[in-house]
Specification:
Blueprint: H1 4-10, E1 16-20, E2 27-28, E3 31-32, H2 36-50, E4 54-58, H3 75-85, E5 90-92, E6 106-109, H4 123-135, E7 142-145, E8 167-169, H5 171-184, E9 191-195, H6 200-210, E10 216-219, H7 224-230, H8 245-252, E11 257-258, E12 262-266, E13 275-279, E14 288-292, H9 294-306, E15 309-313, H10 326-337, E16 341-344, H11 347-355, E17 365-366, H12 370-378, H13 383-389
Parallel strand pairs: 1-4, 1-7, 4-6, 5-6, 7-8, 9-10, 9-15, 10-11, 15-16, 16-17
Antiparallel strand pairs: 2-3, 12-13, 12-14
Helix pairs in contact: 2-3, 6-12, 7-8, 9-10
Length: 390
């Protein structure tokens, strides 16, 4: 695939370049609580702007339904992006046509998902929107795909626009693909994967894909309780997918899955709930497990300390609530303390690293694409990458 460096070598001064970034950041009202994806998008934007391109960034925020919704406006993102770039970034509207731009200018198109054609299953509808996006760039425009977090989506601003304009892979996408390839093609061993999150069903495909390839698969988060139930343990009122118990029992036959030996339980899902740390065979009726316990952290840390390659996706507990954050913190710290090639698989894991004050440079790579990372590891074809190779 052609790269952003190829585009710059061709010459971009005075040309308009459409850049698909992933700026889908978490908000508390209009306050950004984690700007990691914005910061990760900066290098490609700065490279193009510095070379004299007129940059139009395309991005989404949240999942608006059917049209514009003020709470999903990219205005807070534009403000933060401007702070980081050291120059104001204004928001433009697609309906108003090609903006007035000078060489080096950077503007942000308002949330592309305000237009239902972006995520339409109808090829013609997406193609129509892609054509309108391409028209913003004029006769000598180009498209740079730099939102790894969306390359697994067949959407107008990810897939179809790459068929309307000369298309190039941005630096972030290239870096993410390189890391994913390292995880999938003969990783250095021992290879340990840590999976957390709520549901087994959400991670089932990646578990099935990874089990033959890893030396150990450590399971925490809400999903661990379905595995524990498959071993015959009572799990109180913990999150449980009864329809997945049989599947979990079969997966456990691999002998590679490591489960918690103790958990932090609570009588309610709240920061001020009554809590206790109990062995997995002693979860009280009516109580729910909301984190892995200290013995589990120590056991997971022992496995991670021997590993030469580590992939982590999903928190070990409800890290947003202080009483249930130590499992995630402890496992993350064990990864930092080791000498493995370590990859944080985006999403909540990346947010946890920053929220818990862990050193980002303690990991070899923090991905910006949780879902995209997992689908790549599953061996799926990602439309946003396939189209760049055509």
């Amino acid at each position: 695939m052609k790269t952003v460096d190829d585009l710059i070598n061709e010459g971009v001064e005075g040309r308009t370049v459409l850049v698909r970034s992933d700026l889908n950041v978490p908000l508390d009202g209009d306050r950004i609580t984690d700007d990691g994806r914005i910061r990760a998008s900066l290098p490609t934007i700065q490279e193009l702007s510095g070379a004299g391109a007129q940059v139009i960034i395309v991005a989404h925020l949240g999942r608006p339904k059917g049209g514009p919704q003020p709470e999903f406006s990219l205005a807070p993102v534009a403000a933060r992006l401007g702070e980081l770039l050291g120059a104001p970034v204004r928001i433009i509207e697609l309906a108003k046509g090609t903006p007035d731009l000078a060489a080096g200018d950077v503007v942000l198109l308002e949330n592309i998902r305000f237009d239902p054609r972006e995520t339409s299953k109808n090829d013609d509808e997406r193609a129509e929107l892609a054509h309108e996006l391409a028209e913003l760039t004029g006769d000598d425009g180009a498209f740079v795909s730099d939102g790894f977090g969306v390359v697994h989506r067949k959407q107008a601003s990810v897939y179809d626009v790459a068929q309307e304009l000369p298309a190039y892979a941005g630096g972030l996408v290239l870096a993410e693909v390189e890391v994913a390839q390292r995880l999938t093609s003969e990783p250095q061993r021992p290879y340990a994967v840590v999976l957390g999150g709520s549901k087994v069903s959400d991670k089932l495909a990646v578990i099935e894909a990874l089990l033959p390839k890893v030396d150990a698969l450590l399971v925490g988060g809400g999903m661990c309780f379905t595995f524990l139930a498959a071993q015959g343990y009572g799990v109180g009122s913990s999150l449980l997918e009864r329809d997945q118990i049989g599947t979990c029992r079969a997966l456990l036959e691999s002998g590679k899955i490591v489960l918690p030996s103790d958990v932090v339980v609570a009588d309610a899902f709240a920061a001020d709930a009554k809590t206790d740390t109990v062995a997995i065979d002693a979860i009280p009726d009516g109580w729910m497990g909301l984190d892995i316990g200290p013995a589990s952290v120590a056991e997971f840390a022992e496995v991670l300390g021997r590993a030469k390659t580590v992939f982590w996706n999903g928190p070990m507990g409800v890290f947003e609530l202080a009483p249930f954050a130590e499992g995630t913190r402890g496992v993350a710290q064990a990864i930092v303390d080791g000498d493995a090639f370590s990859v944080v698989g985006g999403g909540d894991s990346a947010a946890a690293v920053r929220a818990l004050g862990l050193p980002e440079d303690g990991f070899s790579h923090i991905s910006t694409g949780g879902g995209a990372s997992l689908e790549y590891l599953e061996g799926k074809s990602l439309p946003g990458l396939v189209v760049l190779e055509q």
